[in-house]
Design a protein that fits this description.
By secondary structure, this protein is an alpha/beta fold. The protein folds into 2 domains: about 280 residues, Metallo-beta-lactamase, Chain A, CATH 3.60.15; about 170 residues, Rossmann fold (3-Layer(aba) Sandwich), CATH 3.40.50.10710. About 25% of the residues lie in helices and about 20% in strands. It has 13 helices and 20 strands. A 7-stranded mixed β-sheet has the order 6-5-4-3-2-1-20. It has a 7-stranded parallel β-sheet with strand order 15-14-13-16-12-17-18. The chain is globular and about 70 Å long.
């Protein structure tokens, strides 16, 4: 009669297990970010000898217990400070030699086969600069284009690091990483070029939604993703749940935002300002259309003009800020205070044929709808607006969440000082709770794994088999 140990040896001999790599034969997920929190997705998928990361982002509240404003860890100095405060996991065979120089973690050649990225937002790509240069990246064409645009505009703040190989994909273009087959499918989000994935593993198909919504002008892309994910009959669905805790609120659509912006503009007697994220192309078009409807010109600064111009290659519907006379490009006072060409960067000069200055806007303020972000509030001193309106059209977290008090206080002070009437017109880049329920029930996985949410337990209302991941822990499938 065999002992338990000899019984196991018999199985090893027959090839059921591998003494050296038995742990790798299991399909597993390790969540180094995005578990029980919104943002910071870093999901390690292991299957046999294949190891890939799904996103590699930075949390929204990253380091807030230790750092504030100018007290920040210096990325260029490597990972020493990050490891000291547990801001990044001390995982071997992952980070670059340079980033590990002043740490106790010894550099080893990476064993990660790829990092696959869903979209451009920093909570999904923000920690890429720490990775070993030899680890291949996979990202959509549009995502890579946006990273290049933002690095040119903000080289100190927008950086994905150095990588020897960056592979591009488009929707439906399957690719293989060892035995894993990955199919990227476009989804609608508040940034262009967003994707979800269907990954064929030895356990069955695993679907990863990334960030998505179904209430914008390209809801058809998300519907296509849902259809293909359902057809894949997935074993596991890794689903974002940013808005899972929002119950009973109206799920505003992008069309409703455009209509509200247009209504505010039509009733305004003076200059109208609006703020939205530069990466939110749908929101740009909503403001552009609202300006057209009210026979106003949309005023954008040189940075936003550069983003729009560069993205026209990928999104042809975008207007040309160089030629379109429904758009005017705002030039701030600089150096000589004469708006001379020499005062501006080479890339800014391309738009000078469509230039508008504070002096022109002051003469006929009712003719303009102007994009204005926090760092450009100083322009109000030159514009001296009367009977003006301001439309806040970005993340609801800014106005309603905690941790933004200092910036909010300044917004309010500037609006009050100039007597500007405040409005809000926004819809989320994430699916509503009702839409999340629809997606989960439609795809109908065997196992549901919630990420990118503060309330993972809520997912149990919509599925009978929910595995709730914990940060840093390995989840075996």
């Amino acid at each position: 009669m065999f002992s338990h140990f000899s019984y196991l040896l018999e199985f090893y001999a027959l090839g059921f297990f591998n003494l050296k790599n038995d742990c790798l034969l299991m399909v597993s997920l390790t969540f180094y970010g995005g578990a029980g929190e919104i943002g910071g997705n870093k999901i390690l998928l292991q299957d046999k000898t294949a190891k890939i990361y799904l996103d590699f982002g930075q949390e929204f509240n990253f380091g807030e217990d230790y750092f504030y404003e100018y007290l920040q860890p210096r990325q260029a100095n490597g990972l020493e400070v990050y490891f000291e405060f547990g801001l990044l996991p001390e995982v071997p065979k992952l980070y670059s030699k340079k980033m590990l120089e002043r740490t106790k973690l010894k550099y080893q050649k990476p064993d990660i086969d790829a990092v696959i990225l869903t979209h451009v937002h920093s909570d999904h790509i923000g920690h890429l600069p720490f990775l070993d240069e030899g680890i291949p990246l996979y990202m959509g064409h549009g995502t890579h284009k946006l990273t290049e645009i933002y690095h040119k505009l903000y080289p100190s703040f927008s950086n994905i690091g150095t990588h020897e190989k960056i592979n591009h994909f488009s929707s439906g273009e399957k690719f293989k990483i060892k035995h894993l087959e990955v199919e990227p499918i476009h989804v609608e989000h508040s940034a262009p070029g967003a994707y979800g994935f269907i990954i064929k593993t030895s356990k069955g198909n695993i679907v990863y939604t990334g960030d998505f919504r179904i209430h914008g002008p390209r809801a058809d892309m998300t519907e296509e993703f849902i259809k293909k994910a359902k057809e894949a009959k997935p074993y596991a669905l890794i689903c974002e749940g940013t808005r899972m805790e929002s119950e009973g609120e109206h799920n505003f659509t992008e069309k409703e935002v455009e209509e509200r912006v247009s209504g505010i503009v039509s009733e305004s007697r003076g200059l109208v300002f609006g703020y939205f994220s530069m990466s939110n192309i749908d929101r740009f078009m909503s403001f552009y259309n609202a300006a057209l409807e009210n026979k106003r010109k949309l005023v954008i600064d040189t940075r936003l003009a550069y983003v729009i111009q560069q993205m026209r290659e990928k999104i042809p519907v975008l207007p040309d800020p160089i030629k379109d006379r429904n758009i005017r490009v705002y030039y701030r006072l600089a150096k000589s205070c004469t708006f001379a060409e020499k005062d501006y960067s080479v890339w800014e000069r391309d738009f000078m044929g469509n230039m508008v200055t504070f002096e022109e806007i002051k003469k006929n303020p009712e003719e303009y709808l102007m994009h204005l972000n926090f760092n450009r509030l100083i322009e109000l001193v030159y514009l001296q607006p009367k009977d003006a309106d301001f439309i806040y059209s970005s993340s609801e977290h800014f106005l309603e969440g905690e941790g933004n008090e200092e910036e909010k206080k300044r917004w309010v002070a500037w609006m009050k000082h100039f007597g500007i009437k405040f409005h809000k017109a926004h819809c989320s880049g994430h699916a509503s709770k009702q839409d999340l329920e629809y997606v989960i029930k439609e795809i109908n996985p065997e196992v549901l794994i919630p990420v990118h949410t503060n309330v993972p337990e809520e997912f149990k209302k919509f599925h009978s088999n929910v595995l709730i991941p914990k940060k840093g822990e390995r989840l075996e499938l």
